[in-house]
Amino acid sequence: VKNKMIVQTWRGKDWDKEDQDSVFIIKLDPKGKDTILHATHANVPEKSVDGIKKGWNDHYWNHWKEVLAGKPITPVKM
Q1: What pTM was estimated for this model as a whole?
Q2: Amino acid 61: pLDDT
Q3: Closest by Cα among 26, 10, 12, 17 to 61
Q4: CA-CA distance, 14 to 25, in Å (whole number)?
Q5: Which of 1, 7, 12 is nearest to 52 (CA)?
Q6: Would you state the pLDDT for residue 7?
Q7: What is the predicted pLDDT for the residue at 26?
Q8: Residues 28 and 2 sit within 8 Å (Cβ to Cβ)
Q9: Sheet (strand 34-42) strand order
Q10: Coil, strand, or helix at residue 14?
Q11: What is the mean pLDDT of each run of 10 residues along the chain (78 residues)?
Q12: Whether the Cβ atoms of residue 72 and residue 51 lie closer than 8 Å to each other
């Protein structure tokens, strides 16, 4: 939904065939001059939860916070 919500489905390549695709939802909530980002990641197999949570923090949230705070970031080498 333009300017309001992003929904994406995906799955880890190491997930079992029986595992459902996960659903990642970003909802954008305007608050004056700011926007609050609400993120939900559903249907992640229990065995993958800790790794995915760590990955979100290491590769996305921490970097986005730096960018939004106006701090320069160093690209992650993978």
Answers
A1: 0.72
A2: 85
A3: 26
A4: 22
A5: 12
A6: 96
A7: 92
A8: no
A9: 5-10, 22-31, 34-42
A10: coil
A11: 90 95 94 88 95 90 79 65
A12: no
